[in-house]
Give the backbone structure.
Amino acid sequence: MPENTTKKNIRALSLEELQAWFMDHGYTKFRGKQVYEWLWKKTAHEFDVMSNLPLPLRETLKEHFVINGVAIDTFQVSSDRTIKNAFRLHDGNIVEGVLIPTDTRMTACVSSQVGCSLTCKFCATGRLERLRNLDADEIYDQVALIRRQSEERYQQPLSNIVFMGMGEPLLNYANVLRAIDRIGSQDGLGMAMKRITVSTAGIAKMIRKLGDDKVKFNLALSLHAANDAKRAQIMPINDTNNLDVLEEALNYFYEHTGSRVTFEYIVFNNFNDTLQDAHELLLYCRKVKAKVNIIEYNPIEGGEFSNAREDRFKAFIQYLLDNGVILNIRRSRGKDIDAACGQLANKNEGAVVRLKRG
């Protein structure tokens, strides 16, 4: 737990607020810029490492502020090189994030909430209670730690970031956007916006807000059925954000950003895997400027779903391709360590590496 809850989280301050604080306390504005660089570009988690600051100033910072740093508590390495991390937050809560290596990219999958409130039936995270939103700096730290992991373990730079971990990003809107701003900033991690994708279960009001804010990152919608009755069976959010409502919001987003949304579609056995289901998806794609990611299902403990049979899977895909749908097939990675999409539930078993605390 934090040693003094009356101290302010210093990374909650903007550069201007930090500079103003230094000037109010008799220091130059330049000191604020130095500390800001330590906090974000150098991702410092302790004031003592800020070696270009005088010792008395470092002590003063300790008296007034805390740095709520995130640390890797444990990690597991999959047979396909995927790494699942359990991140320990300053209050003891745990969230998970994943490094996903492929031949062409190194992707960080990060969390936005401790738990989730949406209870999607195919997702292990949806069975967890939502305890709280993550702060922007906690989201940022996940990316910074996974980036370092990619460079140190695989000698490859991080190329992509997806908000597909624990939680619904658009229910933590302000912190997610602030984190992305820092991640993309040149005085942060300097990641290109088009390398960042935010995935939502479908919060129409906040999708429209993304359009109003003219965001530059990519948006993905967890769709999984282009039929309200079926989608509501597996995603309760559809009761209040049905396909017609989402269609309007997604078209509004496209009109204001020029960015085509990606529909994520898991093909479940004997649920949404018929040619009729494919036809309904085709019709929905004609209503919204979209491309489709077909996703392999990742089984969860006690789950009621399984992957579609290979013949039905191939027929489903071929129907969409024959009708001009822009399509990608996403094969799962990290299934053997419960690191794949929909499996994150703070369940660490098997070959767990626990890191020493300094």
